[in-house]
Design a protein that fits this description.
Length: 173
């Protein structure tokens, strides 16, 4: 029994399904869909992917995989172009949010945006009195329209008195 010189239609269908359905179907499911018997599909799928048993099928699978990778390759140019097309289609449909999102995604891909997150941890108790007063002044300056005329000095005096009152209450308990 020699190695066949040509792929069968069933083998070609299996190889095409294996590549096109990658991630959605496993090899056994591809073998069944290609026409192999359900009870032996798992063994058939395994054998068809064995280069010692079916070198032509394995070679064909490799060729198809390479074609797909070239066809669907993600490059900077392809990516930016595709996002541009999506933006234009969204703009034509007056889907402004989608158009803006596509344009922002293009900008991110091009490196025009830098996302920066600063996470600070710590407790107010860890701050020195000067740092705490400085932070309070900044908060008061930022939110002064909301505070309705309460003076900075009044707030500082009030904040300084509250801990003493809390301490006196806890001493009495």
């Amino acid at each position: 029994m020699g190695v066949p010189k040509k792929l069968t239609e069933q083998q070609i269908k299996f190889a095409n399904l294996l590549i096109s359905e990658q991630g959605r179907k496993n090899a056994t499911q591809c073998a069944i869909e290609a026409g192999y018997a359900k009870d032996s599909a798992r063994q058939a799928a395994s054998k068809l992917q064995n280069p010692k048993m079916y070198p032509l099928v394995v070679q064909y699978i490799g060729e198809i995989r390479e074609e797909w990778q070239k066809q669907y390759e993600v490059t900077f140019g392809n990516h930016i172009s595709e996002l541009g097309k999506l933006r234009d289609e969204a703009r034509d449909k007056k889907a402004w949010s989608a158009a803006v999102n596509a344009e922002v995604a293009r900008g991110k891909a091009a490196g025009l945006y830098i996302e920066q997150k600063i996470i600070r941890t710590g407790k107010l108790e860890d701050l020195s009195t000067e740092e705490l007063e400085s932070r309070m002044k900044q908060i008061i300056d930022d939110y002064s329209p909301i505070l309705e005329g309460v003076e900075y000095e009044e707030l500082i005096d009030k904040v300084r008195q509250e801990p003493k009152e809390d301490q006196e209450l806890s001493d009495q308990s």
